[in-house]
Amino acid sequence: MKKIFKILLKIIKWFVIILAIIIALLYIFGYGYLVRGVRVTYLTGHKTAFLEDYEYFDNRTIEKGTAQPWKISKGYNKVPTTEKLNQTNKDLGTTSFLIIKGDSIWHESYYDIGSETAMTNSFSMAKSIVSSALGKAIDLKMIPNLDAKVIDYLPELKGQYAKDLTVGDLSSMASGHSWVEDYYGPTSLTSQAYFKKDIRELILSLGVDKKPGQKFIYQSGDTQLLAMVLEKATNMKLSDFVSKYFWQPMGMEQDALWQLDHEGDGIEKAYCCIASNARDFAKFGKLYKQNGNWNGEQILSEEFIQKSINPRFTESPQYGYGWWLSNYQNKQIYYMRGHLGQFVIVIPEDDLIIVRLGHLKGLQTKTDPHSEDLYIYIDEAQKMIKQK
Questions:
Q1: Looking at the domain 53-386, which fold is it?
Q2: How confident is the model over 188-193, as a mean pLDDT?
Q3: Own/partner pairs, 359-363, CB within 8 angstroms, 24+ separation
């Protein structure tokens, strides 16, 4: 028995030594972020980023001001969710589902970890907020216009076409930047940006190798680069800028958290990762539905909003400046969208906002830029409203 015990100890000892060598080599050759990725993702039982992962990263607070709670409709929750919506919410792990009619919450359902105050990851819905911040910086004349050159703020930007890149190209995803979008590859640029400790260095290591402003190619790196421009142009941390010009004047009910690459002087993961709640995310839908006006104050120019919710490229009608676009049911629809099916959907013709947060998104095909669950949320919300 003692002999077996000694053999087991020796095996454990060598396993620990080999593991330590592997980890050391990963750090030596620049792959140390993989250790962080494994710890945060796989060792918590996940295969990709997840709704509560902000708890495992450094964050900067987006401070609220005086709260302006949503009005509650007289018909609040009087109509039950449809059978199809119930099944979809169950199948895709919905945590929050809101229907806002006019300026009031008409329906509100929470499941699993969801609640009125539960904070979950926005993922790429943050891109719409960063684009809004660009619009505000233009309104404040901190940036002259959408044609402002990125290189004027980041002279270290490299690549054959670096001097041609504009902030508008970044907001509309037409940068020509050598970023490759991949959410599941452990060594992908997206994974590196998520887990590395210096996103600025990562972004600036890439070049603008194709002529910008030619076509839409969805790239998270574009939004991150835009955030770096905003830092320089405003001389503020992005979280502080969003707090001052959006979170506070719009009366968000809670502080939010924005993930950083590292604490202290780290930069926000601007392409994703604002932890907030469904009610507060919905207010960006309301702001855009109201053409930037909030309680009589023009928070964001109508001109910029109209630019944002219309396609830049006729061959890519699914995207404007920071917002996804659809003409489903022959109606103008624009929405914020994030990994795993986070949505803030605006249908101005119906005076309607739909918010869905959750663990999974519906089927995404190569022939349709919108996932199938988007249509379900719209259809079933409309069916419910017709029953009132």
A1: Beta-lactamase (3.40.710)
A2: 89
A3: 359/50, 359/51, 359/92, 359/93, 359/94, 359/95, 359/112, 360/91, 360/92, 360/93, 361/92, 362/88, 362/92
